Amino acid sequence: MNIRSAACDSVQDKAYHSEPENGIYLLMLTKSPIRLKLETIEKTYPAGTLIIWDGSISTDYSPEDEALVCDWISFDAENDRDFISSLDLPLNRAVVYPDSELMSQLIRSIVSELYSLDNKRMKLKDSLFRTLLIKAEEAGNQRGRIHQQTADPHFSGLTELREKIYRNPQLKWNVDSMAAYVNMSRSYFQHIYRELFGVSCMTDVISGKIEKAKEILSETSCTVSQVAAMCGYENEEHFMRQFKKIVGVTPSKYRKN
Which residue, of 5, 14, 102, 242, is most buried by count of CB atoms within 10 Å of its CB? Predict the structure, then answer.
């Protein structure tokens, strides 16, 4: 697999367009809402959306808010066509991925190996990238299961709620307030949320807080205490423990890296 270029936590504040380029793939994992045009349909998707363009159609997207934050990898399959063709990848369509942090960690590791001077970096990079594509295949298959649920009258309301959770991590989200937002009972809300998105509502709340914290740490000089408050944490120690558990490093070390 030939990775042409890649980036983590890329910030794009303008609309992007490129013409079809046969054999050149672009894999993108969003960390903020994205306005996406696929064929003739234009639609907004939430953070945690996975898209893989295969070069057969034009690439068109833009930020839904002020800027789009995403991880991405541009690659071609010149030496691994058999492997690519053996996978049922969700090409040229958007998939809301239930475990975006795992995929983001894989991309981060791939980028690290891509620019490493270690003599084993090529082998490690290829292994990580194959794992990433297998996870993308799994995401596409799960989306097929989720798609069957979209006839539920609450689907649009739940999607709107999920976007609001990621846009407003500072709010005091809890199960009761989220269930009330979509006019559901507590138990039914928790059940249908997990069925549709593959994760619990509180897992999404935490993911939204951590993603916002990573953005602030990367782009500002705010103290850890300030970051915690901006992401809705009343206790700095709790924020630090939760951040390290999910990201793997402390907030301070993440900023240094």
Answer: 242
pLDDT in tens, 125-160: 888 888 888 888 877 776 544 444 444 567 778 888
pLDDT digits (tens, 9 = 90+) for 103-121: 888 898 888 888 776 666 6
Angle of helix 100-114 versus helix 201-219 axis, rounded to 10? 30
User: pTM for the whole thing?
Assistant: 0.56
- Residue carrying structure tokens 């916002």: 212
> All domains of the chain, ordered by start, with CATH?
2-147 (2.60.120.280), 155-256 (1.10.10.60)
C-alpha 205/C-alpha 48 separation (Å) is 13
Q: How many CA atoms lie within 13 A of 221 on its CB side?
A: 0
